[in-house]
Amino acid sequence: MGRSYIVEDAVEGYLSKICSQPAGAVTGLLIGQSSVQRDFVVMATRTPQNDESADAEKSVDKEWVSEHARQVSRMLPGGLSVLGVFIISESDAKDTLTTLRQLVFSVEDLISSEQLWIPAEDDVTDCITLHVNPKTRKTVCRTFDVKDPKSVAKPADWKYQSGVCSSWATVSCWLSIDLVVPLTDNTTCTRNMDDCLKEELKVWAQQVERGVCLIDGKKLPEDSEIKTGQKKNVRQTYTAQLLITPNKLMVPDVVQGCGGCVSVRGAIHSRAFLHSNKPKAKLAEKLLKRDIISTVATRVQMLLEDLQTQNEENKGGRQTEQFFPPRRVFCPVKPTGPLSVCDYQFRDEGLSEMTDRFKEMLDMDAAEEDLDATQEMISEVIESEATAEASTETAEPLDPWRNNYIGVAMATVVVLLASAASMLYLSDV
Questions:
Q1: What are phi and psi of 343, to 5 degrees?
Q2: For 351-393, what is each residue's pLDDT tens digit?
Q3: Could you tell me which of 339, 378, 175, 179 has the C-alpha nearest to residue 270?
């Protein structure tokens, strides 16, 4: 028997709305949570229009759909993920099967390339494909094992149900980050810095995965339920603490040229959602740790992408530079429900730009007052002896809402994250 998908009835309304609009083939993503027993689909979002593609109406752009999935995956807190893809087309379901298979494998490959955690043995590797005929509204649901290149389509059960978004528990925590990443000689471009940061983040991610997670101040047995004795369908929130210890393995001393270092500092807010079908402490811990790893890696990557453009325009080097990754802002999926998605706000962006991205990426009509920007503070400039001395040599006043470059020859980068202050530093050695 195939997998079962319990689908929020709002998804049915969303797909029906697309079916009623005159258009060619429409693709999109299905978002929710997987479990060993069943999967829950809570959202669907269509692929944005690709204005640069001349054949957008004639064929499905696999790269465009995959890039959309990558961007959406960054906006999903712990417990929510891209479960698969859908296509709305008048073509026969059998004729679209090859296209859907290519899409779901391409999407999974791109998303997994950004994941720094180690896959667990109980991770669900089946992804869903859904074909909807806009005239008959008939749906055909199949799954593919994306970890098996030879996987064939398997039938799956697709059931709409009301209230799927209401029965979830929320586990959240705040975590201080303080990483120092040495840069090898001639690390003068953002791409090499990216490689150094990614390797160090992988080491840090392993420390996070080995960390001890306390839920409401207690270390719960893995198989225990975190909602024991609580009423069903009542919104529950839990506060967690993550205790991380450095790697105790001794590494042989190696002499290596170092041209500087990157310091990643700050405090971040993390949260994970668990469907209330007897959630275990082990699952809560796994989803929360993965969200911590993802949100830090996403911010650093977004900052590096931004700096790559800036470096092409600013060739001069400096001793100490401070950069400010974006802070995390949340938006509820439903006004009264526990589920939320997120976006990342740079210092020079307003909330209106975030509501625009929620519309473009997730097809959500969010208002500025719906956004929760209270969990993390905007990063602040860190003053030190080095930055103070460098600032006396700077004639122009610094704009506090933009990334400020402080120093002379490139050496130290400080990346300041968000809650307390999160930054990226480069410094001389």
A1: -145, 175
A2: 999 999 999 999 999 999 999 999 998 766 555 544 444 443 4
A3: 175
Instruction: Name the phi and psi angles at 160, rounded to 5.
Output: -85, 145
Q: Distance between CA 153 and CA 99 in Å, rounded?
A: 12
For residue 47, the one-letter residue type is: T
What integer pLDDT is reported at residue 22 of this predicted model?
78
- 250-257: which pairs have CB atoms within 8 A and are 24 or more residues apart? 256/182, 256/184, 257/184, 257/185
Pull the structure tokens for residue 182: 């040495």
Q: What is the pLDDT of residue 411?
A: 44
For β-strands 236-243 and 327-332, DSSP reports them as: unpaired
Residue 268, Cβ neighbours under 10 Å: how many?
A: 24
Beta bridge partners of 264: 415, 424
d(C-alpha 141, C-alpha 93), whole Å: 9
Indicate the pTM of the whole model: 0.86
Name 139's bridge partners: 132
At 74, which amino acid appears? R
Q: What is the 3-state secondary structure (H, E, C) of the chain?
A: CCCEEEEEHHHHHHHHHHHCCCCCCEEEEEEEEECCCCEEEEEEEECCCCCCCCCCCCCCCHHHHHHHHHHHHHCCCECCEEEEEEEECCCCHHHHHHHHHHHHHHHHHHHHCCCCCCCCCCCCCEEEEEEECCCCCCEEEEEEECCCCCCCCEECEEEEECCHHHCEEEEEEEEEEEEEEEEECCCCCHHHHHHHHHHHHHHHHHHHHHCEEEECCECCCCCCECCCCCCCCCCEEEEEEEECCCCCCCCCCCCCCEEEEEEEEEEEEEEEEEECCCCEHHHHHHHHHHHHHHHHHHHHHHHHHHHHHHHHHCCCCCCEEEECCCEEEEEECCCCCCCEEEEEECCCCCHHHHHHHHHHHHCCCCCHHHCECCCCCCCCCCCCHHHHHHHHCCCCCCCCCCCCCCCCCCCEEEEEECCCCEEEEEECC
Q: Which value, in Å, is the radius of gyration of the alpha carbons in the chain?
A: 23
